[in-house]
Amino acid sequence: MFWADHVEKVFDTGRKLWMEKGGEKQTRKENYIDTLKMLEGIIGDKLYFGGAKFGYLDISLIGICSWFYTYEKFGEFSTEVETPKIIAWMKRCIKRVSVSKYVVEPLKVYDFALQIRKNYGIV
Predict the structure, then answer these.
(1) Which stretches make up the GST C-terminal domain (predicted)?
(2) How many CB atoms lie under 10 A from the CB of residue 82?
(3) What are phi and psi of 83, to 5 degrees?
(4) Phi-psi category of 54—alpha, beta or left, where left has phi over 0 and alpha has psi -120 to 50?
(5) What is the domain extent for residue 46?
(6) Chain mean position to CA 95
(7) What is residue 5's predicted lDDT score, i.e. its pLDDT?
(8) How would you classify residue 110: left for phi > 0, otherwise alpha for psi between -120 and 50, otherwise beta?
(9) Residue 103 in contact with residue 59, Cβ under 8 Å?
(10) Cα separation of 13 and 26, whole Å?
(11) Rounded Cα distance, 120 and 104, in Å
(12) pTM (2 decimals)?
């Protein structure tokens, strides 16, 4: 449960990448990548966070993986370069029918983020 709560930090630090304007982008990017690297350390070389079984932490994190593209665009980095084990894990999860049927396409999330920024006057 502790690590599932950490997923909220991943989302919060990622949100700051696409919602905030102005300086500090480098710091926001580093904070986001650090939160993912902590999870990458937990998964290590396992298939899923729980080992061979897809479990609670996997479900918690896979729900925000559609945002990775948006975070990358606004933060100007590659999640795959920074945290390759997380991306390998994500690709394994996406192959599961129970996941692929419900994960939102990343470009739709990016378009949504652009619309939110426009509504808040963030250009």
Answers:
(1) 1-120
(2) 19
(3) -140, 70
(4) beta
(5) 2-119
(6) 17
(7) 86
(8) alpha
(9) no
(10) 12
(11) 23
(12) 0.92
Looking at this protein, which amino acid is placed at residue 120?
Y
Q: How far is CA 7 from CA 51, 77, 114, 123, in A?
A: 18, 20, 23, 27
Backbone phi and psi for residue 23, each to the nearest 5 degrees, phi listed first: -60, -170
Q: Which two tokens stand for residue 80?
A: 């795959």
Q: How far is CA 13 from CA 31, 53, 78, 79, 102, in A?
A: 6, 28, 15, 14, 23
pLDDT 10s digits, 63-116: 999 999 999 999 999 999 999 999 999 999 999 999 999 999 999 999 999 999
Are residues 66 and 106 in contact, defined by beta-carbon separation less than 8 angstroms?
yes
Number of domain units in the chain: 1
In the numeric block, the tokens 């394994």 are attached to 92
Task: Give the distance, in angstroms, between the CA of residue 18 and the centroid of all CA atoms in the same chain.
Answer: 12
How many CA atoms does the CB half-sphere of 54 hold within 13 Å? Answer: 14
CATH code at 8?
Answer: 1.20.1050.10
Nearest to 76 by CA among 26, 19, 10, 20: 26
